[in-house]
Amino acid sequence: MSEEVIRLDDVWVKYGDLTILEEINLSVQNLDFLGIIGPNGGGKTTLLKVILGLIKPTRGNVKVLGNPPEKSRRFIGYVPQITQFDRNFPVTVLDVVLMGRLGRKGLLGKYGEEDRKVAYKALESVEMLEFEDKQVGKLSGGELQRVLLARALASDPKILLLDEPTASIDEPTKTELYELLKNLNREITIILVSHDIGVISSYVDKIACLNRRLFYHGSKEIDRETIEKTYQCPVDLIAHGVPHRVLRKHKEKVE
Q1: 117 Cβ neighbours under 8 A, 6+ residues apart
Q2: 63-72, 177-186, 219-228: range with lowest mean pLDDT
Q3: Cα atoms in the Cβ-side hemisphere of radius 13 Å centred on 213
Q4: Structural domains of the chain in order of their starting residue, each with its CATH number
Q5: What are the residues facing 124 on neighbouring strands?
Q6: Would you say 68 and 55 are in contact if contact means Cβ atoms under 8 Å apart?
Q7: Which of 4, 26, 183, 203 could bridge 178 with an S-S bond, Cβ 3.0-4.6 Å?
Q8: pLDDT average, residue stretch 44-63
Q9: How far apart are CA 59 and CA 245, in angstroms?
């Protein structure tokens, strides 16, 4: 049997009277590639932060690699959503990737030769080594995502969490990113969250739906009823490629 690396039992997160996550139960096995879909504001980022130990549940239990998440955080690589930043700030690609080593050295620790070797290896794995001296603010959206992924990989993670990694990048770049993640999944457990059903591709092994409550069956198949419960509206989902994931047959148009 595969080793369980993440477990959430009856997890709730509340801010005052506002419930963000409700009765979350989740088991993730080693080398799973789990895609979590759901609408904006459905609690996806909050769920990732619970796994990271950055948000403490109001109720319930969380285990990561058999320990409380804050004790296992050094084994988790995190790729957050791209936020606005000063693109004129003089920081290079290599500088950003080296930040992934801070969890091992502390904020005041100096980078050594080993840190640089790991950073170069991470950049090479995402095909960005030639950009090491380029200013981060000059990168495209897809290039920036690769750099943030390299920063996460520089921590030598056993688990990789990605928050909307394909937002604001074009379709060919999305495909390249999924190919890259699939290769990484040979050695790393991956959880990817998105509000866009369309980005969940055949590369993902398992799919869950989250909108405050989690709908998860431990497989990559999702039915129309689950999607409609998650998005709280009627949904027709048409998939292309193999395997097909068409959730409802469409009536032929009658002329």
Answers
A1: none
A2: 219-228
A3: 9
A4: 4-84+157-231 (3.40.50.300)
A5: none
A6: no
A7: 203
A8: 97
A9: 35
Going by C-alpha positions, the residue among 32, 11, 36 that lies closest to residue 22 is 11
Let me know: does 224 contact 248? Beta carbons within 8 Å. yes
Fill in the DSSP letter of residue 83.
-
Q: Which H or E run contains 30?
A: none
* Pair 49, 55: CB distance under 8 Å: yes
With beta carbons less than 8 A apart as the criterion, state whether 1 and 27 touch. no
Please identify which residue in the block is written with the tokens 């595969």. Answer: 2
Task: Answer yes or no: are the C-beta atoms of 196 and 202 closer than 8 Å.
Answer: no
pTM score of the predicted model = 0.86
The Cβ of residue 132 has, within 10 Å, a number of other Cβ atoms equal to 17
Q: pLDDT tens for residues 150-179?
A: 999 999 999 999 999 988 788 888 889 989
